[in-house]
Amino acid sequence: MTIEVLYQIYLKHPKVSTDSRKIAVGGLFFALKGPNFNGNTFAEQALREGAEYAIIDEDEYMHNERYLLVEDVLTALQQLGTYHREQSGAKIIALTGSNGKTTTKELIHSVLAQKYNTIATRGNLNNHIGVPLTLLTIRKDTEIAVIEMGANHQKEIEFLSQLALPDHGYITNFGKAHLEGFGGVEGVIKGKSELFQHLISHEKHIFWNADDPIQAEKLKNYPNKTGFSKGNIANYQILFLSADPYVKLQTEQTEINTNLPGAYNFTNAAIAVVIGLYLKVPLVKIKAGIEAYRPENNRSQILNKKGLEIYLDAYNANPSSMKAAIEAFDKIPAKSKTVLLGDMFELGDEAPMEHQAIADLTANLSFDGLYFVGKNFSRVKTDGNTFSSFEDFSDYLKEHPLEKGAVLIKGSRGMALERILDIL
């Protein structure tokens, strides 16, 4: 079956599912394969649950005309997403980076939605499956789509760029994330920069942070760019006012109060301002969009629980984001401050050194309590408390509950440190 024929079927049934337990009634089910499952085996169930057609790639599951046979289901999904994007009149803004992608995406979406019919990547569907799924949510009236791109190895951002074919792009930063897959920090810079390379080769527009020396070097000879700076060296000057505890910034004599703690969130908000201004969103509406956004899903949240002011940033972590969160937490005004840190994943051979560096950082700051959780953190040299597992840590807290004060919770997704909220 050709993509052109499949596309005509999609236009009549423009809902897509890849999980037979979550079928979009009247839509298409793509029978993807994984390490431990074969989606073809769920095609019949998907049709029973209400899918109109099931796209499969093994002819033994072809029972009637409601089964559509393709050479490879994943490839068909990706090609369909790109084909739909090419037929659409929507402008695509792609973003990647080591830290802050999802928060930045949500801020941009909130700003642009003040003027345009805008969609954005749902949750963190930012990989080779999530990007085409997001592209397939573009509708006739969609004017702008904000597409998040994640990666943990070389050539992945290049591939996702070829799928999404962005008109604009932005890289949040280059940090110590997925060092194992990228092959060190230089590998991270090379891998994330694939977005810039794609945009430059297609003569597309780039948004950039002029205060980032890596971006400044890579884009110094590229004219089609729009950026921000705390100084006066870019298209827009965005001033950082404070983070006490939420980031406050200013441009064109207008103050904008975010709901994001930590100075590291300044650039995330600043680029949303710049993109809004570039796309002619009135500044008053940009301010409204940013101030309306409230973080959720364990990202940059401040919660109050039984006398504790909890800074919850436990969705994910790497050495760069953890350092930024710790240093920001150190600057908040509080009578007592406790840090609960969980292991950082995908660091490869750098893991022992990077975990020790975080422990050393906390030792030089004024915290009243230090708790390190996970196999790597349990091996660091520290005056704080170390636990090899979450279970050991939770058992300890049940016997030694935290008193009043501020608490930072930060760790990789696999640690799921938000579970500690029930104990706190």
UniProtKB/TrEMBL annotation:
It catalyses: D-alanyl-D-alanine + UDP-N-acetyl-alpha-D-muramoyl-L-alanyl-gamma-D-glutamyl-meso-2,6-diaminopimelate + ATP = UDP-N-acetyl-alpha-D-muramoyl-L-alanyl-gamma-D-glutamyl-meso-2,6-diaminopimeloyl-D-alanyl-D-alanine + ADP + phosphate + H(+). The keyword Zinc does not apply. GO terms for cellular component: cytoplasm. Keywords: ATP-binding, Cell cycle, Cell division, Cell shape, Cell wall biogenesis/degradation, Cytoplasm, Ligase, Nucleotide-binding, Peptidoglycan synthesis. ATP binds at residues 97-103. Residues 16-62 form the Mur ligase N-terminal catalytic domain. The keyword Chaperone does not apply. Residues 96-275 form the Mur ligase central domain. GO terms for molecular function: ATP binding; UDP-N-acetylmuramoyl-tripeptide-D-alanyl-D-alanine ligase activity; UDP-N-acetylmuramoylalanyl-D-glutamyl-2,6-diaminopimelate-D-alanyl-D-alanine ligase activity. It is found in: Cytoplasm. Pathway: Cell wall biogenesis; peptidoglycan biosynthesis. One of its GO terms (biological process) is peptidoglycan biosynthetic process. NCBIfam families: murF. Involved in cell wall formation. Catalyzes the final step in the synthesis of UDP-N-acetylmuramoyl-pentapeptide, the precursor of murein. This is UDP-N-acetylmuramoyl-tripeptide--D-alanyl-D-alanine ligase.
